Amino acid sequence: MSAYHEVTLKPINEIAEYKRNLIPASIPEGYALKPMLGSVANDDWIRKGIVAFRDFLFLFCDHLISDGQFYAKPPKKPSSMSDYPFLNNITNMLVEIGYLGKFIENGNSLLITKLPLCIAQVDVSGKKKPPKIPVSAQIECLRFLSLCGFVFSSIDLTAKTLDVSDTQPLKVSYPKNPSLLAGLKALSIADMELREGRRYWNDHNLLRCDYFFLLFEKWL
Questions:
Q1: CB contact set of 133 (below 8 Å; sequence gap of 6+)
Q2: Burial of 16 (0-12, 13-18, 19+ CB in 10 A)
Q3: 2, 48, 109, 200: which has the fewest Cβ within 10 Å?
Q4: Which pLDDT does position 26 carry in this prediction?
Q5: Residue 106 class from Cβ within 10 Å (0-12 exposed, 13-18 middle, 19+ buried)?
Q6: How far is CA 96 from CA 13, 112, 130, 159, in A?
Q7: 102 forms bridges with which residues in the sheet?
Q8: Which residues sit opposite 151 in a β-bridge?
Q9: What is d(CA 11, CA 107) in angstroms, rounded to the nearest whole number?
Q10: How many angstroms separate the CA atoms of 175 and 134, rounded?
Q11: DSSP for the chain?
Q12: How big is the CA angle at 180 (ends 209 and 93), to the nearest 5 degrees?
């Protein structure tokens, strides 16, 4: 067994400032998207949605800078200088919302019937395994997303704890700019299906608003 080497964890506001600088300051107009994204929405709406999601990420990082210490609790034994489980949990929750959500209300909301990472699983031996996003962390993720403008139906965000599996189906909206949902869905598809190589749990591709994998090759 390898010995644990103590790691000095950076403050969450410093991590947020670093991640904010990775977000594209400008996004070109009129770029061509992969044809497969036609099932999400028309290209113009997706492009608007990507810009809206980029703007959300700036707000997300700003709230992390000012309020992150109340949400992003440090682990007892961090594995790296940026090892905040909160960032992994909230990013993967966003990916599942975008990837699995179905548009309703003329595209102004997403309906989610199941978020697998928030549900306990049973392995082949019949042993129950806890959800990959712990129940104790789910309410904190939803509260922070609400702070950043998301609205979740039928959820009491003042509750001490919450099991998201008990609240499904779940309606999610972003009233400040509904086109964000199309951007989130397209970027979630990129994160799940179009990225190169294996998708790692702690690779925050979505937090970079990495729209490169959405581009149609002829546009490159």
A1: 89, 92, 93, 117, 118, 141
A2: buried
A3: 2
A4: 93
A5: exposed
A6: 25, 9, 17, 22
A7: 111
A8: 173
A9: 38
A10: 28
A11: -PPPPP--PPPHHHHHHHHHTTS-S---SS--B-GGGGGT--HHHHHHHHHHHHHHHHHHHHHHHHHGGGT-PPPSS-SSTT--HHHHHHHHHHHHHHHH-EEETTTTEEEES--GGGS-EE-TTS-EE--SS-HHHHHHHHHHHHHTT-EETT--TTSS---GGGS-SEEEE-TT-TTHHHHHHHHHHIIIIISSSPPPTT---GGGT--GGGB-GGG-
A12: 65
The pTM (predicted TM-score) of the whole model is 0.90
Q: What six digits make up the tokens of 17? A: 């400032």
The answer to whether the beta carbons of residues 147 and 66 sit under 8 Å apart is no
Task: Find the Cα–Cα–Cα–Cα dihedral 65, 12, 52, 168, rounded to 10°.
Answer: -120
At which residue do the structure tokens 């700019």 appear? Answer: 177
Q: Are 142 and 157 in contact (CB under 8 A)?
A: yes
Integer Cα distance of 58 and 62 in angstroms = 6
- How many residues would you count in the chain? 220
Instruction: Delimit the domains of the chain by residue range.
Output: 12-219
Per-10-residue mean pLDDT of the chain, 220 residues long, equals 70 95 92 93 96 98 96 90 92 95 96 91 84 92 97 88 81 97 95 71 75 75
